[in-house]
Design brief:
- The chain is α/β, with parallel strands linked by helices.
- The protein has a single domain, classed as Carbamate kinase.
- The chain has seven helices and eleven strands.
- Helix 1 links the parallel strand 1 and strand 2.
- The radius of gyration is 17 Å and the shape is globular.
């Protein structure tokens, strides 16, 4: 049976070193290269990407109501998905973008069976548009899509090399955790993923591996079954 992997990327991952609000071509190229290393037609591979480099929903929408702000964030994820699709296809990796929002001129609508069929044919499916509903994060989208496609694992690529007991940037005593259960992570309120996403993963027996996106080869190693960073499981 094919191993099914879902990679979760934040929108901030394609910001670049200088920050700002844009899509940095060097960062996008790096991510595409790292995904290509991990890609194999013998695996079923999907990606969920956030939109924080363009719009961060409620955090940005101080003058905009929450629902409208969240919809704007969904549109931002579609822009990022299209950019990632182009970067991957420039490297010879076949892809499809599927969205939870009807936007047929740019991408397919999410249809579970069609997504699975694309992956079986060796295409990477990039899921965009969040869940299609406000008040849900792209972490929850990743957990939901992973459950729907029968993913064996979620690889959450972040700016740090795993999950820590506290923020390592502000707490020198922060300790890296190699393995932890979902219940422990929820009880300790570790903020690497929101509680609804963790609960969904726990209920559907989908482990989550948190790894450093910026260390070359990490995605490839994790996709091959090696423990890189922190593993959260039942």
């Amino acid at each position: 049976m094919q191993r099914t992997i879902l990679l979760k990327l934040s929108g901030e991952a394609i910001l670049g070193k200088n920050g700002g609000r844009s899509i940095d071509s060097d960062s996008l190229d790096y991510i595409a290269r790292e995904i290509k290393k991990a890609y194999s037609p013998r695996k079923r591979f999907a990606v969920v990407i956030g939109g924080g480099n363009i719009w961060r929903g409620a955090k940005d929408g101080k003058m905009i109501d929450r629902v409208t702000s969240d919809y704007m964030g969904m549109l931002a994820t579609i822009i990022n998905a299209m950019a990632l699709q182009s970067a991957l296809e420039n490297k010879g990796v076949p892809t499809r973008v599927q969205t939870s929002i009807e936007i047929s001129r740019f991408a397919e609508s999410f249809i579970r069976r069609r997504a699975i069929r694309h992956m079986e044919k060796g295409r990477i499916v990039i899921f965009a548009g969040g869940t299609g509903n406000p008040y849900f994060t792209t972490d929850t989208t990743a957990a939901l899509r992973a459950a729907e496609i029968g993913a064996d694992i979620i690889l959450k690529a972040t700016q740090v090399d795993g999950v820590y007991t506290s923020d390592p940037k502000t707490d020198r005593r922060a300790r890296k955790i190699k393995k932890i259960t979902f219940m422990e992570a929820i009880r300790k309120r570790l903020k690497f993923m929101d509680a609804s996403a963790l609960t969904l993963c726990m209920e559907n027996h989908i482990p989550v591996q948190v790894l450093n996106l910026h260390k070359e080869g990490n995605i490839q190693k994790a996709a091959a079954g090696k423990i890189v960073g922190t593993l959260i499981s039942k």
